[in-house]
Design goal:
This protein is of the alpha+beta class and 428 residues long. Helix content is 31%, strand content 26%. The chain has two domains: 90 residues, OB fold (Dihydrolipoamide Acetyltransferase, E2P), CATH 2.40.50; 301 residues, Bira Bifunctional Protein, Domain 2 (BirA Bifunctional Protein, domain 2, 2-Layer Sandwich), CATH 3.30.930. The chain has 13 helices and 16 strands. The strands form three sheets. Strands 6-10-11-16-15-14-13-12 form an eight-stranded mixed sheet, with helices on both faces. Strand 1 and strand 2 form a beta hairpin. Bound molecules: 4-amino-1,4-dioxobutan-2-aminium adenosine-5'-monophosphate and magnesium ion.
């Protein structure tokens, strides 16, 4: 291999070794090097004095356009290095770079998020994330679902009132969407089965490593889909996404770098285990948790439960009272509903919530009132039950929750370039 190429990127590190200078370049063109550094070898004999002297003192994050020969070098990242023979263009960065050599606290990194995202770690996360949404989309499209584009500014809540962000809507109150679900329910009467990928917002004050105030929500809703049908769609899409990621050698290696062991991902089998909420209470009690039937599963409970599994698994048949107003009660026992959460294993917990929707209009009105919402505002949603109502089900997957498990990241903020957290301070 001795190919001449033009390379464009930024100086990540520079070091001198004998008469040579080595530059680790964060390369975006050609794209194949993005996410890893390209080792650039600078030697006096291949360059003019002027060019050599410029590169000798080049500062971190300076932008470079250089030409050279790619040579195999097993010790270099990616197995190749560039022997530069022409400097085409330089834009020298101011020095010192705010994120210079030493390690920085999370606060400094968040304050400098616009710079932090340049590092190979974030390049990798961002590229893996793009693939995740590509493969989820791909599964749903291949299975005949239409992608639709619901609104973000809304006037009715889908989830609890406590997590609503209010917006001044020409002197009236609007909200930022918590979930596209109610609109997807309307759209199934037009297109049958639909999905969307939208931002969702939750005014969650709780500062946990798994909550953002803005997250990306992959949601689907299908007409004539029942409880089991929507669980099958979810597990198939998740298993497909993981399989496709692992088929791509680069993604596979990167995922391995982040999470270490990938055997759990490799061994995913369909169908995912399904376990009833009441059984989870038994398990948790036997592990010493002070929990009884009717309590919601908190972060600690989900973690303990999910450590028991080697595969993603569904928790099914939750108490109606701890789920949103739209869940369908089971005919045998109205205290139990057709809602299911998909849990990631290894202690990570909930990544989706979904289930079958209530069709009975009186029960819906009752439950909307119980949430403290005004049924008048939901006139359009209730119309869906008046005009040609059908059994239907759907779910929502948080892309960031999925990514957090996929890469075994401690904090969910690292799955998004510009995280929105329950504080303004130090946020870009
Ligand atoms: O469980 P949730 O609240 O369910 C819904 O919103 C349903 N309406 C979805 C549907 O049926 N169409 O949210 C769904 C998923 C969660 O399982 C989680 O993955 C993610 O959205 N999520 C969050 N992710 C990050 N930060 C938060 N604050 C999140 N809240 C929910
Ligand atoms: Mg949920």
């Amino acid at each position: 291999m001795a190919e001449e190429v033009v390379v464009k990127g930024w100086v990540y590190k520079r070091r001198k070794m004998g008469a040579k200078i080595f530059i680790d370049l964060r390369t975006v063109f050609p794209q194949e090097f993005t996410g890893q550094v390209l080792q650039v070898v600078v030697s006096k004999e291949s360059l003019s004095d002027d060019e050599f002297n410029r590169l000798k003192k080049i500062t971190q994050e300076s932008a470079l356009e250089i030409k050279g020969i790619l040579k195999e070098e097993p010790r270099a990242p990616g197995g190749v290095e560039l022997h530069v023979n022409k400097v085409l263009w330089v834009n020298e960065a101011e020095s010192p770079y705010p994120l210079g050599k030493k390690a920085h606290s999370p606060d400094v990194l968040l304050r400098n998020r616009h710079l932090t995202i340049r590092s190979p770690r974030y390049q990798k996360i961002l590229i893996i994330r793009e693939k995740v949404t590509d493969f989820l989309r791909e599964w749903f499209k291949q299975d005949g679902w239409y992608e639709v584009f619901p609104p973000i500014l809304v006037f009715t809540a889908a989830e609890g009132g406590a997590t609503l962000f209010k917006v001044d809507y020409f002197e009236e109150i609007g909200f930022l969407s918590q979930s596209a679900q109610l609109y997807l329910e309307a759209l199934i009467f037009s297109l049958g089965k639909v999905f969307s990928l939208t931002p969702s917002f939750r005014a969650e004050k709780s500062r946990t490593p798994r909550h953002l105030t803005e997250f990306w929500h992959f949601e689907a809703e299908g007409a004539w889909y029942r409880y089991d049908d929507i669980m099958r769609a979810q597990e198939s899409a998740v298993a497909y996404t993981i399989k496709k990621l692992l088929e791509d050698e680069k993604m596979r290696n990167w995922i391995k770098e982040f999470r270490g062991d990938i055997s759990i991902l490799e061994n995913i089998k369909l169908p995912f285990p399904r376990i009833k909420y009441s059984e989870t209470i038994d398990i948790l009690q036997s592990k010493g948790f002070n929990i009884s039937w009717g309590d919601d599963l908190g972060a600690d409970e989900e973690k303990a439960l999910s450590e028991e599994f080697e595969q993603p698994f569904f928790v099914t048949h939750y108490p109606t009272a701890i789920k949103a107003f739209y869940v369908k009660e089971t005919p045998e026992d109205p205290k139990i509903c057709y809602s299911a959460d998909l849990m990631a294993p290894e202690g990570y917990g909930e990544i989706t919530t979904g289930g079958e929707r209530e069709e009975n209009i009186d029960r819906l009105i009752e439950r909307i009132k119980r949430e403290g919402f005004d049924p008048e505002l939901y006139y359009w949603y209730l119309d869906l039950r008046r005009y040609g109502s059908v059994p239907h089900s759907g779910f929502g997957l948080g892309i960031e929750r999925f990514m957090r498990w996929l890469l075994k990241l401690y904090h969910i903020r690292d799955t998004v370039p510009f995280p929105r957290l329950a504080r303004r301070k130090e946020l870009v």
